[in-house]
């Protein structure tokens, strides 16, 4: 396919991608960003692009996607981050991070946003 037909196919593909913020895993990073605000993660953490996320009692989450470990215990991978977000104290007993009652779907989207912070 060449010429105007291929340009149309390319344009349609770009429009579909622009209108969809979901990754191949089904995660929605934009929703995750909003959820980080909703769960008030910013009371303790500085989180780029999350309004009012200016807390200083816990580490800043700036460039989270480049980190090697979660809480110094788990490799920083989406599945591990979701597990941490859902139940931090089951991952690291005595962890300062509280259990916020994050659902599986919410953790997936929150992790997608955090993993995108580079």
TrEMBL record:
It comes from the Bacteria. GO terms for molecular function: electron transfer activity; heme binding. InterPro entries: Cyt_c-like_dom, Cyt_c-like_dom_sf. Gene3D superfamilies: Cytochrome c-like domain. This is Uncharacterized protein.
């Amino acid at each position: 396919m060449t010429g105007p037909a291929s340009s149309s196919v390319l344009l349609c593909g770009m429009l579909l991608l622009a209108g969809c913020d979901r990754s191949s895993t089904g995660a929605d990073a934009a929703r995750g960003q909003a959820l980080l605000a909703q769960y008030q993660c910013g009371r303790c953490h500085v989180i780029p692009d999350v309004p009012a996320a200016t807390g200083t009692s816990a580490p800043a989450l700036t460039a989270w996607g480049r980190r090697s470990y979660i809480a110094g215990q788990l490799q920083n991978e989406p599945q591990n981050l979701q597990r941490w977000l859902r139940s931090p104290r089951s991952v690291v007993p005595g962890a300062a991070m509280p259990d916020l009652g994050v659902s599986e779907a919410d953790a997936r989207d929150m992790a997608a946003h955090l993993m995108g912070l580079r």
